[in-house]
Amino acid sequence: MSRENRELENNFWIIGSDPVGIVPPDCPLCKLSMRELKDVQSYGAYEVCFTCKIEIIEPNLPRYNMGWRPGNEEIDAVRQYESSRPSYLMK
């Protein structure tokens, strides 16, 4: 391993580079699980889950492209909707 790919951070050696193309288990915006292929595809385009893309990003696309980001109200609405879907219901 070459020295260029190693870095000491917080007393741990970081070997390699930042992962590219890795989809996180949770949406960075709403913090709910990425569950479906369309979530993965949406993450590739906008770095959010499919529901956030459809409910938040696409209706505000011109503003989003100019730097606008959703507030807590928009994010809470997505969480509320997603929490009512069967895969999130728990007994």
Q: What would you note in describing this structure?
A:
The structure is a single chain. The mean pLDDT is 83. Strands 1-2 form a two-stranded antiparallel ribbon. Helix 1 (37-46) crosses helix 2 and helix 2 packs across helix 4 (72-83). Strand 1 (6-9) and strand 2 form a beta hairpin. It contains four helices and two strands; from the N terminus they run ββαααα. The protein is mostly helical and 91 residues long. The protein has one domain (19-88).
Which properties best describe this structure?
mainly alpha, 9% strand, 91 residues, 2 strands
SSE map:
Elements: E1 6-9, E2 12-15, H1 37-46, H2 50-57, H3 61-65, H4 72-83
Antiparallel strand pairs: 1-2
Short description:
With 91 residues, the chain is mostly helical. α1 crosses α2 and α2 (50-57) packs across α4 (72-83). It is built from 4 helices and 2 strands.
